[in-house]
Amino acid sequence: MRQKRSFILLVVLPIAAMLVLGGLLFGSQAMSGQQENEDVQRALVAALQTSSTIELQHLQSVNYGYGVCGLYSVASSEKGFAPFFYDTVNGHLILDINSRQYQSNCGLSSIC
Q: What DSSP string runs through the chain?
């Protein structure tokens, strides 16, 4: 009986704890990424004053997760994709690619 109890305490319990902890960490990351996409879509709907669905492509996290660069397209529009920068801290959306904020966060020099 003593052998069985030590095996459970020394092997099974730590492995189970690591699996639960890993599931919590990776699950929260997945939920966080989905929430961020929804925030970006809500900001785009508000800025463009449209009720159409918005498709996001090529999302890239910048500034250690404090911003998101990417492309968006409005379903009801015949235009193609347009770039944007979303500041996740303040909730600001930048659609002007010539602005200083867009250039400093999403410009080619910030990637290199």
A: -HHHHHHIIIIIHHHHHHHHHHHHHHHHHHHHHHHHHHHHHHHHHHHHT--S-EEEEEEEEEGGGTEEEEEEEETT--S--EEEEEETTTTEEE--TTSHHHHHHHSHHHH-
pLDDT digits 0-9 by tens, 53-81: 888 888 888 888 788 898 998 887 778 88
Q: Can you tell me which residue has the tokens 């030590």?
A: 6
**Residues 96, 30, 66: CA angle, nearest 5 degrees:** 35
Mean pLDDT, residues 21-40 = 72
Q: Is the pTM of this model over 0.70?
A: no
